[in-house]
């Protein structure tokens, strides 16, 4: 099917999301049936505003591709825009497809999480009803690793590598003084504890975990249980290191860091669970305690990405484009794991209808019996995803980045 293509990015960015953009662009660019390859600035929200950037004149050399591949965050810009049903917002669908027709768009590739896959699904179903000849394809991304239909998501491996490395470094710092103290590190993860579990990868030379306790949303959180766990750690050592997911909640579903504020998707805005626990420890035990919230650092640390993650991210972008060029629509490129050691995978396609708005939590067997640390099985799953490092192009000692969104000129 001859025509043009739009590639866009959505949701929370990662340090590997632009590698997927590179893969999709490179695969599309060598196909003779594809004319222009547009980047949708700020996702579907920007497409509604007709913010399209012609990518071919910009990504016209190996050096430009390398720069884009190593750039953190969504180079095209992102959005958190909830595309409602055609019945609720018929004018939005009419406008989107008018823009598609104006620019002869036949292929739409969306790189994002489960809400983004919902957009892919809705647009694809609308195109069928309207008898529009178009292909809609999704590429997964999220540091949260909570998409169903795929073994893991691009961006998670690099986030896991950064978190585990940070835990190692903080553990070294925490042992400097001979005094009672605790450090509580808060990581992202609203509904799934994949990132917190990754902290278990931090090991000393005797292969002992360098964090003592890990708390994830999969298990209802109890401050009483937390204090008992902490007491058990302190009976063995003076310095304690604790990892908590931002989404930890009690058995009634109330978040420890409940702000009472929601975003455009109806999700509660989180952040501060680590501070709440630090205040509790300080008040109850009277020891020195620090709370560290990794916040955006864990998803934009492009200086320390996983080679496995960037390779798979780019390959998934290519695989999505190949499927689209082959006529597949309403699909998401995905990873199926064949074995842990040696690490072997294959790429497959998942139905976006099954991915959209669903959440993949950490299996129970990936936690220890007390559900406050990783099991051996959990470590087996995690280890292959953080392997290898990437060469970074530098200028004056600092990385060079390519921001495509800044190249868009408003009409």
Structure characteristics:
411 residues, alpha/beta, seven-stranded mixed beta sheet, four-stranded parallel beta sheet, 13 helices, 13 strands, elongated
What does it look like?
With 411 residues, the protein is α/β, with parallel strands linked by helices. Helices cover 34% and strands 18% of the residues. Strands 3-2-1-4-5-10-11 form a seven-stranded mixed β-sheet, sandwiched between helices. Strand 1, helix 1 (17-29) and strand 2 (34-40) form a beta-alpha-beta unit. Helix 1 (17-29) packs parallel to helix 11 (307-325). The chain is elongated, with a radius of gyration of 22 Å. The mean pLDDT is 95.
Structure at a glance:
This protein has 13 helices and 13 strands. The chain is of the alpha/beta class and 411 residues long. A hairpin with a 2-residue loop joins β12 and β13.
Shape summary = elongated
Radius of gyration: 22 Å
Unreliable spans are: none
Mean pLDDT: 95
Q: Characterize the main sheet.
A: 7 strands, mixed
Strand content: 15-25%
Structure summary, number of beta strands: 13
Spatial sequence of strands, sheet with the most strands: 3-2-1-4-5-10-11
Total count of helical runs of at least 4 residues: 13
End-to-end Cα distance: 30 Å
* SSE series: EHEHEHHEHEHEHEHEHEHHEEHHEE
Q: Helix/strand-derived class?
A: alpha/beta
Helix content: 25-40%
């Amino acid at each position: 099917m001859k025509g043009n293509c739009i590639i866009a990015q959505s949701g929370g960015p990662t340090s590997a999301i632009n590698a997927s953009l590179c893969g999709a662009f490179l695969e599309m660019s060598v196909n003779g049936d594809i004319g222009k390859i547009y980047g949708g600035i700020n996702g579907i929200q920007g497409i509604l505003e007709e913010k399209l950037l012609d990518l071919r004149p910009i990504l016209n050399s190996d050096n430009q591709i390398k720069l884009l591949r190593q750039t953190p965050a969504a180079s095209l810009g992102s959005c958190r825009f909830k595309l409602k049903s055609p019945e609720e917002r018929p004018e939005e669908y009419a406008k989107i497809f008018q823009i598609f027709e104006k620019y002869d768009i036949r292929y739409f590739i969306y790189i994002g999480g489960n809400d983004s896959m919902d957009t892919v699904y809705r647009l694809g179903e609308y195109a069928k009803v309207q008898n529009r000849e178009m292909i809609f394809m999704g590429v997964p991304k999220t540091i949260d690793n909570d998409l169903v239909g795929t073994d893991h998501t691009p961006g998670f491996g690099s986030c896991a590598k950064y978190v585990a490395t940070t835990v190692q470094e903080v553990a070294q710092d925490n042992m400097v003084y001979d005094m009672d103290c605790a450090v509580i590190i808060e990581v992202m993860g609203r509904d799934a504890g994949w990132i917190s579990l990754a902290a278990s990868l931090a090991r000393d030379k005797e292969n002992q975990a360098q964090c003592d306790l890990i708390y994830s949303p999969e298990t209802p959180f109890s401050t009483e249980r937390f204090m008992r766990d902490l007491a058990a750690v302190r009976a063995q050592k003076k310095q304690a290191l604790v990892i908590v997911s931002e989404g930890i909640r009690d058995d009634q579903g109330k978040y420890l860091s409940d702000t009472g504020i929601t975003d455009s998707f109806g999700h509660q805005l989180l952040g501060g669970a680590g501070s709440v626990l630090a205040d509790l420890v300080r008040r109850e035990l009277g020891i020195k305690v620090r709370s560290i919230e990794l916040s955006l650092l864990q998803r934009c640390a492009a200086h320390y990405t996983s080679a496995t993650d960037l390779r798979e991210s780019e390959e998934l972008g290519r695989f999505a484009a190949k499927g689209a060029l082959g006529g597949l629509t309403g699909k998401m490129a995905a990873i199926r794991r064949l074995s842990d050691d040696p690490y072997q995978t294959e790429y497959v396609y998942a139905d976006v209808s099954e991915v959209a708005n669903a959440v993949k939590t950490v299996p129970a067997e990936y936690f220890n019996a007390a559900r406050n640390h990783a099991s051996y099985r959990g470590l087996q799953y995690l280890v292959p995803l953080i392997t290898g490092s990437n060469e970074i192009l530098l200028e004056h000692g600092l990385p060079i980045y390519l921001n495509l969104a800044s190249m868009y000129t408003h009409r």
